[in-house]
Amino acid sequence: MPPSPEALNIDTLLRVYLVVTAVLAVTSWGGARHLKERGSLRLWAWAFGASALTQAVRQVLLLTDASRAWLTVGHLGGLWSTALLLWGLSLFLGQAAPWRRLLLVGGLASVACPLLAASVGGLWPSLALSTAVAAALSFWAGLKAWGAWRQQGGFPWGLLTFSLMLAAVVYVGRSLDAWPALARGPDPFQHANAIGLLALIALTLLQALSLLLLLQDRAMRRIQQLIEIDVLTGLFNRRGFEDRLRRLLARASAQPPVLAVLDVDHFKRINDSHGHAVGDAVLSGIGARLRATLRPTDVAVRLGGEEFAVIWAQVDPPDPGGDARLGERLREAVAAEPFMTEAGPLHVTVSVGVARAGGTAASPETPAQLFSRADQALYAAKAAGRDRVLTAA
Ligand SMILES: Nc1nc2c(ncn2[C@@H]2O[C@H](COP(=O)(O)OP(=O)(O)OP(=O)(O)O)[C@@H](O)[C@H]2O)c(=O)[nH]1
């Protein structure tokens, strides 16, 4: 026997929806203030707030003898909420927010819903229209989240995509269910409507959780960047380098990585003759040139001062002179053209030591051993007159 409509009373569920979205709005707003987050989180607070506010207005209207057409305000919460969530999502992803289109769609629906209700004399056309628009917006937001999920991966994007797409399906169901021609009598309609509402409450909670996880994920990535990235060049710093080298060496790969250690020749002279700012500009330029010679799988590092390193993660099998050619590419990238600085064009060279990871699959060379061999080759290149590449034995 199907549960009686009392088991899932729509008005009770609407009040639960009001309380849940109000709590989410207040916590998101407080969180946005606390984190000094002006963009997406504030819009998401408004998104939850839109649902709470429209429901609150509906509850107040129920206490008055206002025209039933005004009760359609309760239908608009999901629509405005999804529009604001989508807006915040665009900001979060650094994309241009389609706010004009969102305001237009939301505005038109907000006018059309009470007008429809007044002219038909029932609430169903307003519910059908508002849920259809909310479905489209939720699908649009779901596509955005899906795009980010494909690009960046990660559980929070997956959860958000799932909850937005499922919300779109629920909205479509509610929209179809509102049509009297499709309803199978008042009770099934009430029951399906209530199930839809229950699902929306759960999905709203899921969305809030995934947005929270996304914010946390972004903060973690920022911290990771601060820890691992050299501010001057944008390359990895020594910590990031050690971490990556350790992981690459631990990975049993058909081709062990090749490491180059580079040191700028007579860099002290640049600093002494032209000042630290010019020296910094040269270091930054070297970083850019190194990066430009590499593939995304390779790693470029500023080890500190005027010392750099490169790890080639995927290299050809060893062949005579092959490793030296890799190092030569870096040396040429730096020496080929002068660096344009405020002190004029400066010709800069680097010395390079290259070493290919050795050992066996069962007992690979340690990062310290590999680095030491490359460093010795660099030292030998310096001693041999600089501006050259030497490979480790
Ligand atoms: N502008 C600038 N200079 C730095 C930075 N870090 C280290 N240096 C300078 O880099 C110079 C390194 O000098 P040395 O170690 O003597 O080496 P070099 O002059 O490059 O000589 P060789 O390596 O023997 O060819 C020092 O003057 C440091 O002060 C930095 O972040 N910015």
From TrEMBL:
EC number: 2.7.7.65
SMART domains for this protein: GGDEF (SM00267)
PROSITE patterns: GGDEF
Signal peptide: none
Domain called GGDEF: residue spans: 255-393
Keywords: Membrane, Transmembrane, Transmembrane helix
Protein name, per record: diguanylate cyclase
Species of provenance: Pelomonas baiyunensis
Superkingdom field: Bacteria
Segments passing through the bilayer: 12-31, 43-63, 69-90, 102-120, 126-143, 155-174, 194-215
